[in-house]
Amino acid sequence: MSLKNLAGLAGGLLLIGLARAHPQLEDRPADPATFARAEALCADSIRQQLREPASARLGHFVRVGLRHAASSDLVLRDYRVLVKAKQGLGGYIVDRPWGCSLNEQETRVLWVGALG
Fold first, then answer.
1. Distance separating alpha carbons of residues 43 and 50, to the nearest angstrom
2. Separation of alpha carbons 23 and 33, rounded Å
3. How many Å apart are CA 83 and CA 31, to the nearest integer?
4. 3-state class of 102 per DSSP?
5. What are the percentages of helix, strand and coil residues in the chain, rounded to 5?
6. How far apart are CA 12 and CA 74, in angstroms?
7. Where would I find the H helices in 1-116?
């Protein structure tokens, strides 16, 4: 077997192993009640991390996808939103993107943080 064929075989086996380890996730649209609950959970978590939570102006939340966590089989649903909030001197900063990851059932925040 040539080196080229061996490399192709190894790459194919690696892809099969990855597909088996993390089966294709099927994302479904969120129903309005689930989306509203997820939006409220993320908004509360974001506000808790700001200096002046009451000053936060959150844009429209966008559900960006479903993925496996890097180090486990935990499934995460990711949301993004633009946040405008007061800085230390009292002025508002420009819109800053934030991310929020919830569990698959969208009932608990697992991670939240500024992206930019």
1. 11
2. 28
3. 24
4. strand
5. 35, 30, 35
6. 25
7. 3-21, 32-48
Q: Position 69: which residue type? A: A
Per domain, the residue ranges of the chain are 27-114
What letter represents residue 26's amino acid? E
Q: Domain 27-114 carries which CATH code?
A: 3.10.450
* pTM for the full predicted model: 0.72
Match 């969120």 to its residue by tokens: 30
* Residue 35 backbone phi and psi in degrees, to 5: -60, -45
Over residues 72-113, the pLDDT tens digits come to 888 899 999 999 887 777 777 778 899 999 998 999 999 999
How far is Cα 66 from Cα 101, in angstroms, rounded to an integer? 9
Q: Write the burial class of residue 46 (CB in 10 Å: 0-12 exposed, 13-18 middle, 19+ buried).
A: buried
